[in-house]
Amino acid sequence: MAAKLLHRWYRLYRLSSPLCARAHILSAGSKMVMARGPPQTPSAPLTAFSLSRPTDKLSVKEQADRAPPERSELEDIINSASTAEDLLHLEELYAVNANQAAVIISRLSRLVAEKKMDPESILRDVRFQDLLQIIHRQGTQVWNTALVNLFKSLDLLGLERSRPEMRSVEQEVRWRLRRLTFKNLAFLAEHVAASVPKGHPSELLSDVLKHLELRWTEISDVRTVVMLMSKVGPLSPALMERLEDKSLELAEHFTPEDTRRVAVALAIQNRRSIPLLRAISYHLVQKHFTFSTSILLDLAFAYGKLCFHQTQVFQKIAADLHPRVPELSPGDVVRCLKSFAYLKWLNLPLFEAFAQHTVDNAEKYSLVHLSNVVLAFARLNFHPSCRDAFYSTVHRGMDNHLDDLDPYLLLDLVWSLCVLQQAKASHLQKVLEPEFCTRFLDDPSARGHNYRLKLIHINAAACLECADYAGPLLPPEALGSKGLQGGRKPTPLQSSLREVLQVVAGDPAKVRFEVDTDCGWLLDAEMVLNADNQPLPVADFTAPAEAQSEGSKPLPLGARRLAFLGWEFPNFSNRSKDLLGRFAMARRHVQASGFLVVDVPYYEWLDLKSEWQKTAYLKDKMGKAVAEEMAK
Hints:
Domain RAP: 562-620
Structural class: mainly alpha
Organism: Podarcis lilfordi (Lilford's wall lizard)
Main location: mitochondrion
Family: Belongs to the FAST kinase family.
Keywords: Kinase, Mitochondrion, Transferase, Transit peptide
């Protein structure tokens, strides 16, 4: 009963309501008009929707937001045109509307790019100017995709941004940003980011970046996120963070090329996104991709630049790259060597192959290439099995060409040869000449301090490891490294070592910490033992190897100087107990200066838990150092 009453009330209300009755009558009239045939003008049909909202007519811009109509015959002709003349002639044959004019211009820009035509002749053509005027007058009728393509095409054709037609198209694009699909928005962002000069403000670019930051969750495909990270991400840190989150979500779908582009984008922007790098590394190892040589080199570069250690990825890169070494150019070899040197990762088969490649293709290696190979080998303290042939190649490349090198690279090269114990007297003389040294000794910057320290190391190598070197040498006032290394905060290992050494010495005067030497190295601690291995007051005795010696007495007969060197985790190669080249040279120089070296590596020290264990460990180390010296 209630349902029947409700139905009768609805019928009475529909007939008695003027608005509903009017809509009903006109809706029926509309159906009769449609039955006669299609309307001749867009405004002919009257619908119930338009009558119920008489003041809300569909704007032309809203029409442009709807799905585009089916392709017309003219658009098929435009796409099949093969010359610019054919396209421009269409403006004379047909009544072209704004959307079709935009499609013609987009097609023109593609032809110019494909056939490498001169765009100036097209821009000056009267028919092209007519197309611009049509778009200028009816810009709101251009569909969204065509509008974005039009803006890019006008830019590529070289139309000046100050032209009224160009400004109107740009303004129309800015008005429609909220209604563009994300694909169109990303396409627009890619073009604008590449076309706007760096450092020049762009309102369109700012608006596009804001919309990307707000709509990043709409990204659904890998290609878009990879493109935005590599080309647009550097312009907006906030957007880059969101793109990293989206990349983490899509990482399992990355192809090798996608992985390369994402890794390189992170490296170039120096963004060490640990979760994303871990995800990329996991999928690189789990999926058995076949990588091209360029992808392998770019991955090595990215991991090296970001200093991200992933041994399984490194092993995969080395295994895939090793059989392809003969095909590499000298530049590729240098790139890979530098990347692995930054990572402190040494793969013996791969590095041996690189050394042999250098020997076999010596004529293709420039002196700069050879210098970078030597720098990488020195950092890792790598000595190839073909060392005679390799160093002969390096020395031949250096002969009579040292003046061609940049002074800083030359100093790095000679220092690296000192690390590898392959420096000749002529090389040492070149960098220790007063005219060459002055620029480094007088440089107060941090970089200048670093190179001054390297000069001191080279000076020490000349004195201690090159018997036939006759000079010149650095002046005495230039020696000593304490002021060049800044105020170093003691590490946990150094602090713990000091505490235990004070217990071993029994008297603060019998041990000295942070000892500066004239060979450019800081000792963590120094002790003097008599013939019975009992500590003596350190300050009482002369120390020829120290930059500032306080004592005046010579060492007693049978006494020995002990230098304690604490080796931290960064002093070693990755996953190895081999010292890096710099620290291997430090140990040699300290030992050659008359000290007995007591090594305290972190991997042994951290295993000792109690003070008693650490004290016994140091006493045992001291006893072994003395016994080894006596056995010689």
